[in-house]
Hints:
Elements: H1 3-24, H2 26-201, H3 206-254, E1 265-269, H4 274-280, H5 285-294, E2 297-299, E3 306-310, H6 314-330, H7 335-364, H8 371-379, E4 384-385, E5 388-389, H9 390-408, H10 412-421, H11 436-446, H12 451-458, H13 469-483, H14 492-507, E6 512-518, E7 523-528, H15 535-552, E8 560-564
Parallel strand pairs: 7-8
Antiparallel strand pairs: 1-3, 2-3, 4-5, 6-7
Helix pairs in contact: 1-2, 2-3, 3-9, 3-15, 5-7, 6-7, 7-8, 7-9, 9-10, 9-13, 10-12, 10-13, 11-12, 12-13
Amino acid sequence: MSLLDLVLLLLVLLLGAALFLRRRGEEQAGREARELLEAAKEEAREALEAARKEARDILEAARQEAKALREEAEARAKALRQEVEAELKRRSEAQEAEAKRRLQEAEERLKAEREELHAERGRLRSLQEELKEERERLKAEREELRREGERLAKRAEALDARAARLEEAEAELVRKEEALKAEARALEERLKEVERKLYEVAGLTPEEARRLILERLDQELEEEKAQKVRAALEKARLEAKREAQKILAQAMQRQASETAAQLAVTVVPIPSDAMKGRIIGREGRNIRAFEALTGVDLIIDDTPDAVLLSSFNPVRREIARMALEELLKDGRIHPSRIEEVVEKAKQEMKTFIYERGEEAALEAGVVGLKPGLIQLLGRLHFRSSYGQNVLKHSVQVAHLAGIMAAELGLDAALARRAGLLHDIGKSVDREVEGSHVEIGIALARRFGEPKEVVDAIAHHHDPDNAETLYAVLVAAADALSAARPGARRESLEEYLQRLEALERIALSFPGVETAFAVQAGREVRVIVKPEKISDAKATLLAREIAGRIEKEMNYPGQVQVTVVRETRAVEYAR
């Protein structure tokens, strides 16, 4: 039994004694109770002291035991940690060696697989090249077969239409012949009747009567002649339009590519005006080095956030632009860096020019060009003639020549090749002496081009001396491309002079009241006096004005001559 239990027991006994004493009487009970109470208090005090001492001893023993257990646990944990670290160290060394061995084996396997993959890639590349060449050849053959079929179908349709027109024309001629015979008989009868009446009524001599009849007949025949000329011209115009649409109209409609005019100045934006000082450099050494390496004038003026590159050579100007933009992007501008960047820009320009040549050849459908010829062709991207980009013009001429050759049953591929290369001499005419025709002939012969291509280059300005039909087709395609509206620019003064010349030619004819050049010189509208020019004579006047314009003027495209004849009746109600 513990000390606390004893204390509780004593308290219970004290309470019981107190109750007992209350029953025995107040005095005896009080006395006995006080004695017992004193005794119980003393015992309780002693028991409490003993209990406190025992509790302190137990607490101290528990603390010592807990400290010993903690130290023992820490020692065991430290030993266990050391064992675990040693075991982990042994395992990591073994795993690291195993990982190195596996990594080396994997690298060797990867190297072998990479070599096999490289060899396989080479084989695949060669197979792709062969497949590409075969695909191009099949595509060209398929395209040629398709064009041949279309050409045969169109030729059959044209022959059928021509046969139908010939039959209609033959029937029309028979009808006209019968009508003319009937008119001739009617005229003879009418002439006889007129002579008889004149003899009877006027009493004129045969010579006088014949003269009057001939005058009247001349007037009637003049009117009839004008009407027949007008009808014949209308018929001829319709026939010519149908025939021309087979060769020219379709070719011209396909060509609507943009033209570009190369200027002599390129504007390069800069981040801020503070960059201008860095471009100039100390005592101007940077700008001098840049201009010496590129051959382009670098103009730095008050233009905000921009500098100018000036040169007549567009290739040099483009190299300078690329180099300057790279310098501005990098921020390091000094002579050695400028030399490095300019050399890099020149190499990039060679690649750019070659890509432009390849794109032009692909667009024109020309294959088999040698790399040197493709490089020269790409240089035409930076060449312009009368505001027309020469490379675009060459591709357009190739398309037109190919279309016309296909319509005429010639080799369309050869015609496209001749059209694409007809101005190849312009790529180096600024560096080599001679005309672009002479230079082009020399280049074509050097690269082994066919004689038809050489002949087209030599005579695309004078097809009358050409030896092959391809030169004639290229000359026609060249004229179509150059004369197309918008292809070439002309100055405002030349434009106004051309409009004034058109109006002056129209006003020089008798019977013309006024004339206006409209639609940017594509049409001349002529107002005639109705009392002097009849409807039939208006057709002859339009033809004469058009012939005069063709003879005396140079102009792009065509000029439409419209003759307007109207009669007005004006009256005033008063």
